[in-house]
């Protein structure tokens, strides 16, 4: 709770200070996001138990969209931009071994992100920015499991647990967490209201928690990193650019 209070206090202070500025705009944005969660193999596969296998953690494309406010300091070439946006971010964990078993675990999380950017304008439109965000996980058990176990069982006669049972076990063992990340942005705002931006999102805290289980799954530090491309449109409140 302490870290949440600190984040909200910092966020609120920026909003209060920004209200002194008269050049205020608001807008909407949407775009694509390419994200990945790391450190999945040591979480899922116990060390020293399995041999002759390979794994991969694959970043996936998703979508993002939301709303923003922009308080601009024209004389200082800086602005504060609070944001609230939804993102669908996914990572695939793939496993293959010498016996022919392969499976895919997907972590398709739906998130709500709240934070702000501090932006610096090199020109009237071109800017760079950075800022903290807090990500709320909206579906903490979002996980799917698929494999070739049924086909392999028919061929070899070896019994494998059905995919539905394995998926249920995994959902009970792994739970998405709310986490912090930092965003680093570069973009351009056109005079007609359109804007385009590119961002790198750096995960700062653990995004996945391993519950107590009897399957040797470990609790590791799994952070999310992502790249996103966003297109938006901004509006002015009124002729005085004020509430």
Overview of the structural elements:
By secondary structure, the protein is α+β, with helices and mostly antiparallel strands. 16% of the residues lie in helices and 54% in strands. The chain has helices spanning 2-18, 41-44, 149-156, 163-173; strands at residues 23-37, 53-73, 78-97, 102-121, 126-137, 144-147, 174-176, 179-189, 194-203, 208-210, 224-236. The protein is elongated. It has an 8-stranded antiparallel beta barrel with strand order 1-2-3-4-5-8-9-11.
Estimated helix fraction: 10-25%
What is the structural class? alpha+beta
Rg from alpha-carbon coordinates? 22 Å
- According to DSSP, the number of beta strands is 11
Helix count equals 4
Q: What is the helix/strand order? A: HEHEEEEEHHEEEEE
Binned strand content: over 45%
Largest sheet: spatial strand order: 1-2-3-4-5-8-9-11
Give structural attributes.
single chain; 16% helix; disordered C terminus; elongated; eight-stranded antiparallel barrel; 243 residues
Provide a quick synopsis of the model.
This protein is of the alpha+beta class and 243 residues long. It has helices at 2-18, 41-44, 149-156, 163-173, and strands at 23-37, 53-73, 78-97, 102-121, 126-137, 144-147, 174-176, 179-189, 194-203, 208-210, 224-236. Residues 239-243 have low confidence and may be disordered.
């Amino acid at each position: 709770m302490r870290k949440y209070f600190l984040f909200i206090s910092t966020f609120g202070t920026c909003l209060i200070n920004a209200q002194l500025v008269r050049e205020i705009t608001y807008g909407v944005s949407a775009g694509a996001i390419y994200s990945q969660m790391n450190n999945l193999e040591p979480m899922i596969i116990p060390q020293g138990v399995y041999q002759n296998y390979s794994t991969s953690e694959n970043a996936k494309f998703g979508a993002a969209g939301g709303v923003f406010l922009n308080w601009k300091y024209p004389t200082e070439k800086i602005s504060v931009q609070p944001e609230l946006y939804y993102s669908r971010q996914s990572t695939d964990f793939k496993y293959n071994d010498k016996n022919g078993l392969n499976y895919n675990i997907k972590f398709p999380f739906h998130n709500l992100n709240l934070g702000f950017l501090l932006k610096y304008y090199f020109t009237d439109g071109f800017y760079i920015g950075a800022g903290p965000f807090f990500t709320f996980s909206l579906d903490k058990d979002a996980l799917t499991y698929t494999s070739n176990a049924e086909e392999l069982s028919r061929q070899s006669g070896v019994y494998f647990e059905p995919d539905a049972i394995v998926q249920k076990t995994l959902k009970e063992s792994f739970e998405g967490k709310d986490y912090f990340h930092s965003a680093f942005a570069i973009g351009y705002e056109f005079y007609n209201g359109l804007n385009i931006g590119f961002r790198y999102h750096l995960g700062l805290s653990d995004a996945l928690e391993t519950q107590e289980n009897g399957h040797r799954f470990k609790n590791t530090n799994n952070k999310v990193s992502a790249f996103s491309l966003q297109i938006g449109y901004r509006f002015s409140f009124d002729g005085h650019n004020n509430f």
